[in-house]
Amino acid sequence: DIELTKEEASYLRNNCGWKIKSTAQSLRVDGNHALVYMRIRKGNTGGDEARTGRQQKVLMTLIGQMKNYSTTQMVSAVNEVIPYVRTGLTSTDILPLITETFSFIANFDGEVPGASARGCGNYLLMNLPEARWEATKYLKEVLECATEENLIYPD
User: Fold this and answer.
1) How far apart are alpha carbons 85 and 83 in whole angstroms?
2) Structure pTM?
3) CB–CB of 6/24 below 8 Å?
4) Cα separations (Å) of 41 from 45, 50, 57, 120, 146?
5) Which pLDDT score is estimated for 137?
């Protein structure tokens, strides 16, 4: 659900043909409506800064919903989205993010999300000590040894 301000609701009703009240409200939207909502930047809706906020709001809502996904559902969702992802980040920009991710895995202690018959069809194959070992190995042998030369990919 997306929380609409009065101004957003009014804009969507008057300019985009949405059949909603012109009042602040919570509204469940599908992908097409979420896209229209995120693109609003005209009228009394806060301009580009508010537009960026709406994009972040939709993404955070999606991420919040995905927290309840099983591992299989998560992988499937990521595979659907990846072809549409573009970034201006360089390999050097991304390296700290990847390093943080692998550090999290290497130091993870607790129940593995989705490690149940209901959460993942391969739950019996999950091995946290092995995953921690692999993550630590990758950190030490690859990520912590990265240099400018091996962060540049040929065209």
Assistant:
1) 6
2) 0.52
3) yes
4) 6, 7, 15, 41, 41
5) 92
The residue ranges of the chain whose pLDDT is under 70 are 119-125, 153-155
From the number of C-beta atoms within 10 Å of its C-beta (0-12, 13-18, 19+), residue 111 rates as exposed
Distances (CA, A) of 106 to 51, 103, 111: 37, 5, 14
Structure tokens at 36: 């229209």
**Residue range 72-109, pLDDT digits in tens:** 887 788 888 888 888 888 888 889 998 999 999 899 99
Q: How long, in residues, is the chain?
A: 155
Closest CA to 54 of 27, 80, 20, 83: 27
